[in-house]
Amino acid sequence: MTISAATVWEVRTTGAQTNGGGFKAGATGTDFSQQAAAQYDIANADAAGAGEVILTAQAAAAMVGNIAYFVGGTHVTVGWYEIISVVAGASLTVDRQVISDVGHANVHLHIGGAFKFGGALDDEFTEAPSPGNVIYVRTGTYALGENVSQAKAGTAVAPISWIGYKSIRDDLVVRTDRPLFECGGYSTIFGDYSIHKNFRFKTTSLAGLSVGTYSIIFNCKSQNTSALTYAAITLGSGSRILFSEAICDNGIAINTNYYCRICSCYVHDSKSGIVLTFYGGSVILSVIDTCTLGINCSNAYGWTFANNTIYNCTMGISGINAYAEAFINNIITDCTIGASWTTNTLNNFWDYNCWNNTTDVVNVTKGPHDITADPKLKDPANDDFTLKGGSPCFAAGLSLNSDVGLP
Hints:
Layout: E1 7-11, E2 22-24, E3 40-47, E4 53-55, E5 67-74, E6 79-87, E7 91-94, E8 105-111, H1 122-126, E9 134-138, E10 141-143, E11 148-149, E12 160-165, E13 180-184, E14 188-189, E15 194-203, E16 207-210, E17 216-224, E18 231-234, E19 240-242, E20 245-248, E21 252-255, E22 261-263, E23 266-268, E24 272-279, E25 282-284, E26 287-289, E27 293-301, E28 304-306, E29 309-311, E30 315-320, E31 326-328, E32 331-333, E33 337-341, E34 349-351, E35 354-356, E36 359-362, E37 371-372, E38 377-379, E39 384-387
Parallel strand pairs: 1-9, 9-12, 10-13, 11-14, 12-15, 13-15, 15-17, 16-18, 17-19, 17-20, 18-21, 19-22, 20-23, 21-24, 22-25, 23-26, 24-27, 25-28, 26-29, 27-30, 28-31, 29-32, 30-33, 31-34, 32-35, 33-36, 35-37
Antiparallel strand pairs: 1-2, 3-4, 3-8, 4-7, 5-6, 5-8, 6-7, 38-39
């Protein structure tokens, strides 16, 4: 067996590294995970031999469904285990073997209490949840004590979900109400099929937030202040990032892979805003602001770019030899060069864009419906990229209409 897919975990700044930190939703016991201290600190427990059964007079029915952290003892495999049954006053049974051999002694475990990031068990904790588990992280600042590299993966039907919250679980939290991971020189790397909502990350390491294949990032902010060419966010193949912000002082704000989707994101003040890799993704409804290079699609093909604003970049878009791209309904303005390719690659599609740069294009052919005019952004210097009245971009984009069969 392993920890149930229905288990819900709790992380709080008031918790402890050796707390149980979780409870199986729907279990018959009492959820002790949403409190600062462990409900039970059982020392010098015994065992019935190698296996899953722990002998203790403190055993109580309320323990069922809680996660126990086994702190140590002779022949004890330290870690997090789910309590699946109890004989009151006699024993408790956990989900898998915890005692590895005979001769056990001084079995020590904590039941209940929230986990707290910021020590030598940070990485170990990320390996405890099973596919389908949800880990709720309450608002506050968590200074990592080591690199986090979650090797365990979720699945398409049972992802591992990390959700930040302020006071009510699953509420949308914004700005500084989102939990902050102060990574320092450490990085956070999560496995495939993971979900991350409502977080902030600051790092000087490889990546503030890196996810595996087919993962989701929503409402997160990541900033990398390293002097090296690292990244703020790295996406695995097929991953999606939505409603998020990325800054990388000297590297890449968002680094991608195959089939990635970037939607409604704010990428700014970075050496490279978005670096595209391989093929088949999209960048839509996003703002790329004040980057040395806004979008680098030099090593990519088959991407779609729609309804983005690229502002105040030295180079808005660099393609070199990129092909089979589509650029529709974008505003590229106040850049030194709007878009540049090594060779004019005519199977890229450009149309219904607005250009207003020192040099709009190099080896790029504008589309017949492109506009060359000031788009009249309201106040981009203060992050307002909406359009003023009288903007030439109003009603100038490509949209569905009766010409394609719609009534």
